[in-house]
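Weekly modeling sync, notes
Attendees: AB, CL, MP (scribe)

Item 1: holo prediction request
CL wants a bound-state model with nicotinamide-adenine-dinucleotide before deciding which constructs to order. AB pointed out that an apo prediction alone won't tell us much about the pocket. Agreed to run with the ligand included and paste results into these notes for async review.

Input as submitted:
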Amino acid sequence: MIERAVVVGAGLIGTSIALALRERGVEVALADRDPATVRLACELGAGVPLEEGKDERPADIAVVAAPPAVIPALLRDVQSRGLARFYTDVASVKQAVVTEAVRLGCDLTTFVPSHPMGGSERNGPSAARADLFLGRSWALCPTGKATPEAVAAVAELARSCGADPLEIDAQEHDRAVALVSHAPHVASSAVAARLVEGGGAALALAGQGVRDVTRVAGGDPGLWLEILSHNPGPVAEVLAGIAADLDAVARALRSGRTAEATVLDLLERGRDGHARIPGKHGAGRTPGYAVLPVVIPDEPGALGRLFAAAGTAGVNIEDIRIDHSPGLPVGVAQLSVLPERVATLARALADQGWSVHPDRLDRPSREESALLSGPDHTAPPANLGR
Ligand SMILES: NC(=O)c1ccc[n+]([C@@H]2O[C@H](COP(=O)([O-])OP(=O)(O)OC[C@H]3O[C@@H](n4cnc5c(N)ncnc54)[C@H](O)[C@@H]3O)[C@@H](O)[C@H]2O)c1
Ligand SMILES: O=C(O)C(=O)C[C@]1(C(=O)O)C=C[C@@H](O)C=C1
């Protein structure tokens, strides 16, 4: 049972873990090299500042949530201070962290390297959310030396954050995330980098497609440089495949002759690859909710009237995203609501004259719905009892 936790590195990931643990009543003590970051995380309800020597007993678990390059030294430091019974880190790369931890003489019996597969292009505690890992995989990469108790503690940490723990060897993990995270990030940056040269008129036409493809490119370049340089071989291999595909399509389009077969081949393989992503859902949708699109005029007070109409219908808006193109007089409000309330909301809004598009409804998958056990999205996910 995790009752007390320490989080070192109170940024996006550290504070999100802390918030999830706090929701389950776990006591959390936070540390960061930047005192202002700790203050903000604590103000957000993520815990209290770590006070050395305050507790005689070690915490149940310490999570090192700093950038990859500093993790092994921080781990050695927290282990030598005996801050917890078990330790984990959250770095996006695993083998390099393990190799350095071994070199520094860290205790591998109590340490289970891990990687939650939830995140954001934003950093720092202000972007943190308790549900960041809800329904996501959380990789556990125990070395052969970790005790079963240590592995169980880190698996419990993952479940306490609503995630699904998945044991995988560190090198295999690094090859896997090269494919599903690291190379996609570089590809996203490459697409976004073209926009630097785009004219104002082109950018005014930016719709949801380019926003979806480039969202992660908005991430912290310093952190991503660290991630990529700690996983160079596997990332380079995936990028070479992507580059070959892009090159073939560019050559085919220029030549005109072989264009159709080559281009269609990539588009079809792309569609097939996309379909293989488990539990994929629409961009920007909060997991577990249905999203109802409603057209709203781009004018003062429109959103207020929409919220008031939903309130009158007795439906709580759990989240909202607004899609609009600059210069257009209307936008589309994407309202996230509990799946069982969406029909009521659609009817009530339509009755009041709103242009509702239930045909474009984006529903959560069955797996996602199963994660929400009650009417309150902060309720513990259903998979926590395992
Ligand atoms: N951003 C993501 O989407 C994501 C997802 C999963 C895992 N990760 C991993 O999580 C880790 C943290 O990333 P983040 O996105 O939370 O970054 P972040 O910048 O939001 O937070 C990192 C925090 O670590 C602190 N820090 C840096 N050096 C420190 C030190 N020596 N001692 C104490 N604190 C220190 C920083 O002050 C900062 O508050 C990284 O290892 C990253 O690879 C990131
Ligand atoms: O959703 C995002 O913004 C992310 O980039 C999250 C993401 C990912 O690629 O899925 C990024 C890096 C992490 O190590 C884990 C998760």
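Recorded for review: Residues 170-195 form the longest helix (26 residues).
Action items: CL to compare against the apo run; MP to circulate these notes.
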